[in-house]
Amino acid sequence: MAFSGALTLTDLNDYLGPSQVCIKPVEAPEMRPNDAPSSISVENGVYVETSTGPSRARTTLETAQISLNDCLACSGCVTSAETVLIGMQSADEVRQELQRKGDRVFIATISAQSVASLQTRLGRPYAVLWPQICHAMRSMGFELVLDTSLARHLALRAHVREFRERKAAKKDGAQGQPVLPMLASACPGWVCYAEKAHSALLPFVAATKSPQQMAGLLAKRVYGPSHAGTTLSGSLPAPMAGVYHVSIMPCYDKKLEASRNDFTSSDGIKEVDCVLTTGELYDLLMEQNFEAYTPTEIELAAPHPRPEPGSSSGGYLFAILMDVYQTWMSEHPTSTPALEQRTIRSADYTEYLLRAETGEVLFKGAICYGFRNLQNLVRKLQRETGVKSTRMGRGITRRGMEEPPYEYIEVMACPGGCVNGGGQMRPDPAWKAEQEAGHAQAMQEGAPVQGWQGTDRRWVQLVESAYWDDSEKSSDVLGTVKEALSPSALRTWLGDMDESAAAIERSFSESDFRTQYHGVEAPSNGLAVQW
C-alpha cells in the first residue's frame, strides 16, 4: 500500500507507529477515595480487574485505542495516522458495512482524478471504464454511483462568494482577522499542516468546504432521502442516518478530512462515512471482475463530465480569476484586462496577474503545489502579513513591498497537484521498466533527465491528459483565460452546471457550505521530544 508523500518534512517524524512515539495520554477514570483496592489479571488473553472488596466485582478492561480524531487533535505528529490507523477507513470496512446493509442506501462518489488514474493504468477510455465501475459497484450493493462534478462546482461557486466577501471586507477596511490573501482549503494535507505548524495562517484559509464534503451534503441530504422516497421541497431534511456514503479520492489525507468532528452532525452522522483511495477502489473492482462487463450502446454514448477549467486540482484559481475578470468587464466593457503569467520555480509554483490597460493590477494569485514550494510560500506570507509560525521561524513584519501581495493561492500538498495524490494508481511494471530503460539510455547520452518526488513525472502527465480527456481545455490557465476574453465567451462558464448548482443552493444555507479550523499548540511534554 502506497501512502501519501504529501507531508514529508525534515522537522516532522512521519510514518512512526503510536507504540513508539504517540504522546496522547490514555484517559483513565479517577479513583474515588472510598473505592476498594483491585487487582488485574489476564484470563484467556483478556485483562480483568477484580475488586478485593466484599463485592468482588469483576470488570473486563477495554484496550486503549487511538482514533483518527485523536490524531487530528494532537500535535505530536502529522501523518502517523495514515500508517497505523488507516484500517479505520478501508475497503474491509466497506465490505463489512455492505454485509450488514439492511435498509440503508449506499452512495459512492468518485473523484475525476481517481477515474483518470484508473484510465491511465488500465488503458481504456472513460466511456468504457465508467460504466464498468458503476456496474461493479451496483453489484456490490451501491444504489447510486456518482462523479464529483456537481459537488466540485458547488464548492467553486461557494469559494468565489467567499473571495468576494473577503475582498469587500478589505476594501471597506474591516478590522480584526486578516481577510486576504485567501488560501485554498480543498487539500487536507495542507490544512492539517497549517493547523499543526502555522496556525497563525488559519484565518487566511478559505472556510468553504471541499468537494468531498459537498458531496457528503448531497448524499446525506439530497440523493439519499430522494432515493428513499422523501419528497424534497423547501428546506432539506436533516442528514439521513440511513445513508452510507463512500468517497473515492486520490489522497489518503482525505480520510483524515472525513474524520473531522466539524463534518459530523450533532446526532453523530458523518457527511462522509468512509474514504477509499483510487488503489483501494481498484482492489474492490478486481474482486468483482469488473473488466468482464461490456457497456451498452447507451452507456458508451453518455457524455463525459466536463472538467472544471484551470487545473486538474479543481480549478480554484481559475474560478476566482474569471470572476474578477467578468466583474471588471461588466463595469468597464471597453477596457479589456491582460493576463500575465510568471513561473517562480517550476510549473508547480506559478503566479498570475490580471492587469488593466492603465497598468492597475486587478488580481494577483498563484498556484503552489508540493511542500517544497509550500514552505517558500509560507515564508513569503509571513513577510507580507506579519504573522508568526507557531513552531519554527521568526515572524517578519516587513511591509510596503513594491509588488502587490497575493489575493488568492491555490495550495495543494502533492507535487503536480491532485492527479499525483498518494492514493493514486502507480505505473504498470512494464511501463516502469520501459521508462527506466529510456532513462539509462539518456544518462549514457548525457541528456538531462528531470527528477520527480514520488511518481514519475511522465506518468503524472499521462494521468493529467486522461483527466482532460483530450478536451479543448487543457491545464493551461493562461491560454484558457485568453480564450475567455473573446466576446462570445463572455458568459458564465459551465452554464448548465451553474443552473444545477443554483437549484441546489436554494435549499441550503451558506453556513452549510462553510467549516472552521483549529490550531493545535506544540506539545510541551518533554517526553515527546525526539532525541
TrEMBL record:
Domain (Iron hydrogenase large subunit C-terminal) ranges: 106-422
Gene Ontology MF term list: 4 iron, 4 sulfur cluster binding; metal ion binding
Pfam family, one: Fe_hyd_lg_C
Keywords, in A-Z order: 4Fe-4S, Iron, Iron-sulfur, Metal-binding
Family designation: Belongs to the NARF family.
Functional note: Component of the cytosolic Fe/S protein assembly machinery. Required for maturation of extramitochondrial Fe/S proteins. May play a role in the transfer of pre-assembled Fe/S clusters to target apoproteins.
Protein name: Cytosolic Fe-S cluster assembly factor NAR1
